[in-house]
Amino acid sequence: MTDKEVHEVKSIYLAGGCFWGVQRFIDQFDGVLETEVGYANGPDTAPSYRDVCGGTGHAETVRVVYDEKVMPLEKLLGYYFTVIDPLSVNRQGGDSGVQYRTGVYYESEDQLPVIREVFGREERKAGAPLAVELMPLKNFFSAEEYHQKYLEKNPEGYCHIPRRFFSVAEEEKKAGN
Question: pTM for the full model?
Answer without folding.
Answer: 0.95
